[in-house]
Every structure is written in C-alpha cells, then in structure tokens.
Amino acid sequence: MMPAWYGRMNRRERVLSWIVAGTVVVLLNLWILSSLWGAVASAQKEFATRRSKLAEQAVYVKERDTWTKRDEWMRQHQPVLKDPSEASALLDQVKEVAGKYNILVENPAIGTGETTPYHQTVFASIETKSPWPPLVHFLYDVQLPEAFVVFENVNLAVDGSDPTTMRGKFKIARWFAPGQKGK
Q: 60: number of CA atoms within 13 Å, CB side?
C-alpha cells in the first residue's frame, strides 16, 4: 500500500523526506499558533481597553451631577469675548500683578489664540526676572479659576548671572465662552 515513488527511494532519501515533511508540519503549526497567540493578545488588549473605557464611563455616570453643575457654572460665569482688546486688558492685569510683587516684565506681546467648540482665547506673552518667592505668588495670583486665566506655556530657568534670580517666559491666556464673535 505504499506509493510507488516512496518505494523507489532508498533509506537515506526516506529519512530525509520525513525530516523535510516534519519540518514543514512544525513550521506550519508554529505559524498557526503564532497567529492564534497574536489574535488572543489583540483580543486581550481590546478587552482591557474596553474595560478601562467602561470604568471611565461609570465614573462619569456616577459623577454626572457634579459635571452638570460644573457645566452650568461655566455657562453662567465664563466671560464673553467682546473684542480683541481683551488681550490688552489681560496684559495690563498681568503687569499689575507683577508690579505688586516687584517682578520685572520684559518683551510683552498680545494676540488672539485658538477658537474651539469649548472656548476662545486671547493671550499675553511675557518674560520675567525676579527672585523665586515673588514669582510663586505671581503665578498663584494670576491663575485664579474664577478669572479663567491659564498659563499655556511656562519656561523657567535660573538666571546665569545671578543664581538667586529666576527668568521666566510665559504665555498666559484668558478663556472666553465659545461661539461668541467680536462685535
């Protein structure tokens, strides 16, 4: 019942054919198992992502009242962008707070920032020079939640000529209610 081609092989050829066939079967099985392990790993990763997303959504649902109240507070208190001169008012406010703490303000600049579905911004860019303690008070006083003022970019370094002095570069923005156009 042996095929004729197999019968014509000598012993060494038969052993070699079994080795080749075994190697092909092993490689095929490894390829199949590798594909299965990849699919399992992918499914586990997707399951973990979905479980994390579900946990996040459960927290949002659980804290829905808090987020609803915060949204309502934002709608009631967030200022409306009247015109681009708000950037100048922001710069004046920043200079006033800096003056309160004897912080040297250099290279002031103003501009309008991004507009998103959630907010519009105007910004003031400044560079400062001061000791560390007044700078901390300045950062605290400028960035009050009720003022809707944020530091979008901060770069602090010790002054090379005086190790007790800090140099700072700040991009400070005020966020306004979305969808309001200048009048």
A: 6
Grouping H, G, I as helix, E, B as strand and the rest as coil, residue 54 is: helix
State the helix-helix crossing angle for 11-62 and 64-77, rounded to 10 degrees.
60
**Burial readout 73-99 (b: 16 or more C-beta within 10 A, e: otherwise):** eeeeebeebeeeebbeebbebbeebbe
Q: Where is mean pLDDT largest: 47-51, 60-64, 77-81?
A: 47-51
Residue whose C-alpha is closest to residue 166's, from 176, 174, 156, 175: 156
Q: Is the pLDDT of residue 43 over 50?
A: yes
The string of pLDDT tens digits covering residues 25-39 is: 999 999 999 999 999
